[in-house]
Amino acid sequence: MATNQIISNRLNTLGIKLPPPSPPAASYVMATTMGPLVFLSGHIARKDGKPWVGKLGKDMDTDAGKSAARAIGIDLIATLQEHLGSLDRVKRIVKVMGLVNSTNEYTDQHLVINGCSELLFDVFGEAGVHARSAFGVAQIPLGSCVEIELIAEIHT
Amino acid sequence: MATNQIISNRLNTLGIKLPPPSPPAASYVMATTMGPLVFLSGHIARKDGKPWVGKLGKDMDTDAGKSAARAIGIDLIATLQEHLGSLDRVKRIVKVMGLVNSTNEYTDQHLVINGCSELLFDVFGEAGVHARSAFGVAQIPLGSCVEIELIAEIHT
Amino acid sequence: MATNQIISNRLNTLGIKLPPPSPPAASYVMATTMGPLVFLSGHIARKDGKPWVGKLGKDMDTDAGKSAARAIGIDLIATLQEHLGSLDRVKRIVKVMGLVNSTNEYTDQHLVINGCSELLFDVFGEAGVHARSAFGVAQIPLGSCVEIELIAEIHT
Predict the structure, then answer these.
(1) A3-154 in CATH: which number?
(2) Burial level of B94, CB count in 10 A (0-12/13-18/19+)?
(3) Contacting residues of B for A41, CB less than 8 Å apart
(4) B128 three-state secondary structure
(5) pTM of the prediction?
(6) Closest chain B residue to A144 measured between Cα atoms?
(7) Is the pLDDT of residue A1 over 50?
(8) Quick one: pLDDT at residue C4?
(9) Which of A126, B124, C9, C29 is the most buried (most CB within 10 A)?
(10) C35: nearest CA partner in chain B
């Protein structure tokens, strides 16, 4: 079975249907390729196609933040598929940077971003395990609660 | 016409004269090369050679922030020229990370960083189109209103 | 003398004993390799094995922040040694991103992150000089005062 079928099957098993890729919010593109590296732009959390607005520690709890991070993970995979043509070109997920819209007191950013990290592992298996930074920011474009960017390695 | 002349002409047409490259604010360098990748350090916004101080949502509006981001774009190009010797070594702009000094309520970081993204497109054309993350941070060194780092691909 | 011995000697001269590598705080790994690049996850400041809690501009001064950044530098080197088997595989430090847990007014993030940058120079010499971004964030996982991620180039 080709890798792509494995990943398609995993997406099916997880009940995940990839959404239309996110459009850029401004003057840039959602992905660039440089040799074996793909750089994905920061994807903001969306719900029903609109920015998923909220600030952790104020009007959103860790579980909701984790759900938002998981939703971004799905959007990142949709962008990879759109950009690469097929997910079987993904060799591994190298690095994730996760930004959490946080009050000055909220300190569970790592648990929020786990929503994305666990999804990547569920979909890509060992190839989905990545290096990561997570931290709390003052705000995110359009008031979104979480923003995540990603670097992947591809087969060339 | 060599690429460098095209870019020089574009800079002239845009009325842009590259300033002296920004010095590092501390113990590091403004650029490193790793194979085909050039990593530029975070450049803070400057006005008349001094930090361009301000916080979006408090004492600075989106248009002023966008002007600051455009000024950083020019500084980034000046650093590329200094580091590479010639801008014709730039193959493309791969990735931009834009940090906006923001209140906890300001949510137009993407419009601010467009000031840099649009300048890169104006100067490099399609080779200037990049992946990007933009978000709001609590503060930036020396109180500067915007900070931008950049990854470029070069001809090797 | 092999590079590794030079680095070991420098660590000895500096009185630095590498600690056990930091464990990930969540669902990820502390380092990934992609060809000649090693991406280290964001390492949070720790003191006596526990998160080094504090916010610059509120309950921690610049000198203490700089010490925390230096401690992270040592942790980053410990992770490199663990991940690579030997520090002589490090060709150079390419890029550092330093996040400082800051109030909305604190503006000396660059001086804080110098604690790490200077340590990297002391240990690796010219090969330790890197590009860098430093900025202030609303919070860091577990309330830690500083978080630093790093990209290194390795001999392949």
Answers:
(1) 3.30.1330.40
(2) buried
(3) 131-133
(4) helix
(5) 0.95
(6) B107
(7) no
(8) 61
(9) B124
(10) B35
